[in-house]
Write a structure and sequence with these properties.
Length: about 90
């Protein structure tokens, strides 16, 4: 749509066009956020499995150093979000 055609539009048409543009921008932002959340969830799953594997090795590697084991346990602590159980009928 060129500038000449924009001048001939009624205020309602301009408002409707602006609404559609804003709605499209919001829709793309939501899609982008969903994609980023999926990326974060994938990376978190990867890190959680890596932590589970390494978590069993650290006490063996640091058996003579209780400070290192304590530091690992503090650093490796991950808060787990409680999954809500569905209400019983």
């Amino acid at each position: 749509m060129n500038v000449k055609n924009l001048r001939n539009l009624s205020p309602a048409s301009v408002a409707a066009r602006d609404y559609e543009v804003d709605f499209g921008l919001q829709d793309s932002a939501v899609g982008s956020r969903i994609a980023k959340n999926a990326e974060i969830n994938d990376k978190m799953a990867e890190m959680t499995s890596l932590k589970a594997t390494v978590g069993h090795m650290v006490p063996n590697f640091c058996s003579g150093n209780p400070g290192a084991i304590a530091a690992w346990r503090a650093a490796a602590h991950v808060e787990v979000i409680n999954k809500k159980k569905p209400p019983t009928p």
